[in-house]
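Structure request: N-acetyltransferase domain-containing protein, Didymodactylos carnosus.
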Amino acid sequence: MSIEIIPYQDEYKEEFQQINYEWLNKYNLLEDYDVRILSDPQNTILKNNGYIYLAQDTQTKQIIGTIGLIRHDSTTCELTKMCVKPGYQKQGIARRLIERCLKQIREQHPEIKKIYLCSNSLLKAAIHLYEHYGFKHVQNEPRHFATADIYMELQL
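Returned structure:
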């Protein structure tokens, strides 16, 4: 199996939504903020110098993973919507998605000094992966997710 990390295009909107709704519903974490982001990724993520990357199976052309970066101000962005379809997990795809985002920020946006994320303690594999990339746990700061009980930051 060959996987390629590609930039988001509107033709993949349904797959972007489906993959994310699937995991959010599986863990009972879907909130209004998620629905707003997923229903309009152009305006909620991309319009403000954000990014979405997709993992695509090059043989089937199926989208099997997603990740996003939401720009909140001149020095801060949020890592969001990182997921990989269940049948493709534990194959390094999430690592490749995170690495693509970090590369983009470091090469194109040196003004970004901090990436933060909100997560849930049920998502143990994801939290471990974030820790591997240097994200540190921080005190629970008020954010936009009621179900988030994990807050992490990466200082660049």
